[in-house]
Design a protein that fits this description.
Elements (H helix, E strand, L loop, with lengths): L1 E5 L3 H12 L5 E6 L2 H11 L3 E5 L7 H10 L4 E6 L4 H9 L4 E4 L4 H12 L4 E2 L5 H8 L18 H10 L5 H8 L3 H15 L4 H10 L3
Parallel strand pairs: 1-2, 1-3, 3-4, 4-5, 5-6
Helix pairs in contact: 2-3, 3-4, 7-9, 7-10, 8-9
Length: 212
C-alpha cells in the first residue's frame, strides 16, 4: 500500500517515515510539511492512506482531511496528542477513518495504517472515553442525525456501532457479538449506507454522540 506522511516537524516526520518503511507491505509515496502540500501531493501521488497531523501550517489538518476525503483521494488516519482531541473529532466529522496518538508504539502505528487501508479504520484505545464523550457531545454544524435514526436500525446494527465506538476491529467485533467477521463487514456496510456516513470513524463518533 502507498502512504503519504503529513507532519510539519521534519524530525517527527522522519521518524514516522522510518517506521513505515520498516514494513515490507508499506511504501511511503511522499511527505508533506503542511496541509496545502498534503492535498496537492494526494492528488498527484494517489496514496491509499494519508497519515495526517491535525496541527498544520497554511491549511490545518481538519480542512486538509475534508478536501482529501471530499475528492476521494485517499483514506485519512489522523495523528494527535491529548490536548488536540477536539481537532480530531473535527477531522472524524470531515471523514477521517480514525486517529492515533503520536506516542503510539511503532508496531501499532503500522497496524493502524494497514487497518485503514483495509477499510476498517481505527481509534486510539488510549484516548479516555470521557474525552470522547465530551467532544462528541458537541453536534456538528448542520448535522441532521438524531436519536430517531436508531429506529431504522436492526438490533444487530445497533450493537455494531457500540463496538465501533470503542475502537474495536472487525475481528474484535465478531468475537464480542459471536458472529463471523464477514458478517460484521456486511453489517458495517449496511450501517454506513443507512446513516449516510463515509466510514467507520464517523460511525464510531455517532455512537458516542447518541450514547449507544
Amino acid at each position: 500500500m502507498r502512504v503519504l506522511g503529513v507532519e510539519d516537524q521534519s524530525a517527527v516526520r522522519a521518524g514516522l517515515v522510518l517506521i513505515l518503511r520498516s514494513a515490507p507491505d508499506i511504501e511511503v509515496a511522499g511527505e508533506a510539511a503542511d496541509g496545502e502540500q498534503a492535498v496537492a501531493l494526494a492528488r498527484d501521488l494517489c496514496p491509499d492512506v494519508v497519515l495526517m497531523d491535525v496541527r498544520m501550517p497554511r491549511l490545518d489538518g481538519v480542512s486538509a482531511t475534508r478536501q482529501v476525503v471530499a475528492e476521494e483521494l485517499a483514506d485519512v488516519l489522523v495523528l494527535t496528542t491529548f490536548d488536540l482531541d477536539e481537532y480530531v473529532f473535527g477531522a472524524l466529522r470531515a471523514g477521517a477513518s480514525g486517529f492515533l496518538l503520536k506516542n503510539t508504539e511503532a508496531k501499532d502505528l503500522v497496524e493502524a495504517v494497514r487497518a485503514v487501508a483495509r477499510g476498517e479504520g481505527t481509534v486510539a484505545p488510549a484516548v479516555p472515553r470521557r474525552l470522547i464523550a465530551e467532544f462528541a457531545a458537541k453536534p456538528a454544524r448542520g448535522s441532521t442525525v438524531g436519536p430517531a435514526v436508531l429506529d431504522s436500525l436492526t438490533r444487530r446494527e445497533r450493537e455494531v456501532p457500540s463496538c465501533l465506538g470503542e475502537g474495536l476491529s472487525n475481528a474484535a467485533v465478531a468475537e464480542r457479538l459471536d458472529m463471523a467477521e464477514a458478517t460484521v463487514k456486511t453489517h458495517v456496510s449496511r450501517l454506513l449506507g443507512k446513516l449516510g456516513l463515509r466510514n467507520r470513524g464517523q460511525a464510531a463518533l455517532l455512537a458516542q454522540e447518541l450514547g449507544i
